[in-house]
Amino acid sequence: MSTRPARTVTGIVLALWLPLAAAVAAEPPAGLLQQADRIKTADHARFVELLHRLDADPTALTPSQQDLLHYLHGWEAGYQGNDEASLRILRQLSAPARDRLDGHRAG
What we know:
This protein has one domain. The longest helix is centred in the N-terminal third of the chain and has 22 residues, at about 5-25. It has helices spanning about 5-25, 30-40, 45-55, 65-80, 85-90, 95-105. Residues about 20-25 have low confidence and may be disordered. Helix 2 packs parallel to helix 4 (about 65-80), helix 3 crosses helix 4 and helix 4 packs across helix 6. It contains six helices and no strands. By secondary structure, the protein is an all-alpha fold.
């Protein structure tokens, strides 16, 4: 039995998958933040995964994106039932940060 067909199929799959994986990995933070905000309850596991990805490089985020990420962490703490942590995180958002957040989420 030849392994050539299996190698060919593997090669084709990798050739198709790698560009897609690179595109997903290169998704800009703004898109990841918007997606996370949209799916908080609909796909909570994916939401948490997105938070971890965004946490990996906070320097790539603008101040308003950092505010939104901070808000999402506060939301997550509340969703997990940790109201004290949620309130502490959300209270750390300054008034200007809350204004930016309102504008970002409305846009």
